[in-house]
Backbone:
């Protein structure tokens, strides 16, 4: 099998050839058909997160991300073989089925994992982060339960549901109670465009989208944003207030830097909620007294669980949700895809196709 691996943080991915593994125990061997390139892969590749306020960056190496690592957590594959202990636990899947890989694995044993929230486990084993993922032509998945049958959905446009999809689905559910009002979304990249299509399917009134890149704002308008605002405009706050036309009760920040979290906080009405998803980084910018005075809830949101991922695929099928724009690229162009994403050249998602 061929894979593209991070062998040094910030250095080009290396093409590596290994013998194709035979699935052991409960593993399932898949042939990768599509692997989305998420901005989180850029953070992994860069080796950490900026914590702001002059603090030492949060190092992924210190957090247990060892190299070499095959990234790729938005993967779709065709099932080639089940390990000997997986054969009685296939959940109806069979060789030849095409499935989305749920990547947000935990230890599988703790109370949190057993309650179905593996994405919140303190000992993460996420595929493509802590274990090898989909920037490869083959991949092993630890158990059939992490494979969700696509039942005819297109592998390339469905791959992003494993991260962009479930992450925005889970974030949107946290503000579902104010879907009758316009919400504000920061960032019209892979996650932002996904959030727009899901919001519509989930019955929301719609979103005003903030981005600093005119091409991304255009893409958001094409995807049905109620309005867009240039986040770098000096009057961005006034524009948001005017375009909303009513109090803003919820903000989903898919950028997550000091500027967006400040503007997101400032545009909220009393009792509003700021959900932070983006990991661009920096230090918290808010004046502390304003948090209680405005009674703001600030909530983090981290990917989503297996149940939510299945709910999302069901929603995509029943509501015929339009896919986000994708740029398919051959696996051999994994490096170019990362650089294109880093330079902001892509609209939507690049998806690698081995
Ligand atoms: P992307 O690169 O596709 O899109 C980012 C968008 O943000 C771009 O359109 C860019 O122009 C815009 N942007 C950058 N700076 C901005 C600013 N100051 N104001 C407004 N817009 C700005 O990235 P993505 O794949 O959509 O991921 C977005 C972020 O979410 C990344 O940090 C990623 O790591 C993070 N993420 C978090 C989770 C989670 O579970 N919390 C899951 C997936 C991704």
Residues:
């Amino acid at each position: 099998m061929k894979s593209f691996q991070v062998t040094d943080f910030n250095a080009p991915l290396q093409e590596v050839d290994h013998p194709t593994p035979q699935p052991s125990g409960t593993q399932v061997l898949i042939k990768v058909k599509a692997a989305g390139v998420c901005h989180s892969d850029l953070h992994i590749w860069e080796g950490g997160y900026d914590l702001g306020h002059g603090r030492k960056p949060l190092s992924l190496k210190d957090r247990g991300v060892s190299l070499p690592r095959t990234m790729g957590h938005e993967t779709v594959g065709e099932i080639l073989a089940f390990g000997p202990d997986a054969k009685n636990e296939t959940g109806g899947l069979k060789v030849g089925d095409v499935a989305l890989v749920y990547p947000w694995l935990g230890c599988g044993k703790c109370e949190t994992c057993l309650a179905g929230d593996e994405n919140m486990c303190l000992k993460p084993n996420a595929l493509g982060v802590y274990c090898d993922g989909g920037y490869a032509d083959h991949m092993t998945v630890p158990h059939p339960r992490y494979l969700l049958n696509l039942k005819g959905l297109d592998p390339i446009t469905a791959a992003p549901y494993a991260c962009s999809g479930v992450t925005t689905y889970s974030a949107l559910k946290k503000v579902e109670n104010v879907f009758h009002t316009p919400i504000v979304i920061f960032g019209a990249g892979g996650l932002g465009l996904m959030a727009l299509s899901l919001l519509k399917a989930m019955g929301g009134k719609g979103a005003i989208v903030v981005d600093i890149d005119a091409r991304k704002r255009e893409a958001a308008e094409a995807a049905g944003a109620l309005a867009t605002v240039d986040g770098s405009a000096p009057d961005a706050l006034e524009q948001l207030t005017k375009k909303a036309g009513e109090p803003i009760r919820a903000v989903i920040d898919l950028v997550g830097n000091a500027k967006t979290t400040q503007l997101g906080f400032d545009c909220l009405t009393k009792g509003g909620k700021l959900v932070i998803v983006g990991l661009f980084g920096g230090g918290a910018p808010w004046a502390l007294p304003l948090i209680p005075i405005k009674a703001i809830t600030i909530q983090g949101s981290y990917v989503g669980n297996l149940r939510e991922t299945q709910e999302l695929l069901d929603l995509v099928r029943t509501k015929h949700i339009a896919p986000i724009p994708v740029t398919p690229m051959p696996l051999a162009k994994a490096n170019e895809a990362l650089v294109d994403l880093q330079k902001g050249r892509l609209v939507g998602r690049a998806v690698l196709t081995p």
